[in-house]
């Protein structure tokens, strides 16, 4: 038996997220179909995480076991031939048999992109949030530092029906930077709860609008409530940027 | 009567080019439809040029005459509300009555983008040419300087059925530069013949492949023949970048 770690990238606007589902095209489905064409097997696939419909991945990792003898470089090339243009395999390598793409993940980095100009950018309609009004990136960067550290993120996630016994996560980095008309929010943590990045981004935009005070994040942590309707930023700005093992 | 100069940008992957045609969606059609919703008129529209199916515009200019009294800023806002997300109006202003978006154009700049990596970029499938093999941008930049100056471009255009009495154009700038895995070819001229940029880009790629010698461009000019089958680079890498008046 061999274990492979495969790194892919995909344009989330073409898919209803990573995880396979009935009646909707997902990245997992097209990946498994391409894999079947190469190795004539449908091994169980362990993914580093799930992504929502419309969320992108510059880097997404998965592991899978097979007895097939294909060399990693040939597997990479063959998968890229059978995958649609909206997905690409960046790397394939053999890893120890006990490696698991989710359990062995030490941390991840997400980027959220905001096109900050009164006029929309036609090229970014599926690749960034369009926000017409002024964003003070220095103000938001300062507020965002209150997210950094170990916290119970109950106030900053959506109930997805999964039982969670531990709502604590540790954010190691949160920055808000501007490059021309593009505002980029970058978050690194040991793990993320459901919708956590999009709710933190939405919270910062509410701070920008004066609907939440600039120093209001500690209060929201203390509330431990999911009473944040309408605060989740839309998916098209979000990119899974890096996965650390 | 008033004359408007309107600057737009559009994602060409959503359209069969600029110019209106039966049975295919074009930028001109969606623009005229949005305009009709705003001013209840269908004025004759003069465009700076035509773009082919799949070709993008970061800047595209048109002029049109109307007796409507709408202020330019309101026209811009209203058009942006009615246009699809794949088109945006960047600027609207009043110009002298004798201004014509095509005849008064002094020059244009195009950019051609090439994703130069063995693995495709899923985000650029409609926004750059994917070229897997090594590109020596310094070699190509040197060869490209033979395009600069006043030449008869018969060898570097496609016959589109229009009578052309003058095949001379003056290229004022041609550069080939690399930014990481992206190679950008930038061309400025007083005017362009049909497919001229895409054929020049295709010629440079043939030089990269050794199928045309690095100093072969003057010979091609001298041939004055359109015997260049398969040399036209595909549309998705091409952007109309700037229009000068």
UniProtKB/TrEMBL annotation, chains A, B:
Chemical reaction(s) catalysed: uridine(38/39/40) in tRNA = pseudouridine(38/39/40) in tRNA
Alphabetical list of CDD domains matching this protein: PseudoU_synth_EcTruA
Protein's UniProt keywords contain DNA-binding: no
Domain of life: Bacteria
Residues reported to bind substrate: 110
Pfam families from the UniProt entry: PseudoU_synth_1
A GO term, aspect molecular function: RNA binding
Catalytic residues in the record: 52 (nucleophile)
Reported function: Formation of pseudouridine at positions 38, 39 and 40 in the anticodon stem and loop of transfer RNAs.
PANTHER family xrefs: PSEUDOURIDYLATE SYNTHASE, TRNA PSEUDOURIDINE SYNTHASE-LIKE 1
Subunit: Homodimer.
Protein's name according to its UniProt entry: tRNA pseudouridine synthase A
Lineage of source species: Bacteria, Bacillati, Bacillota, Clostridia, Eubacteriales
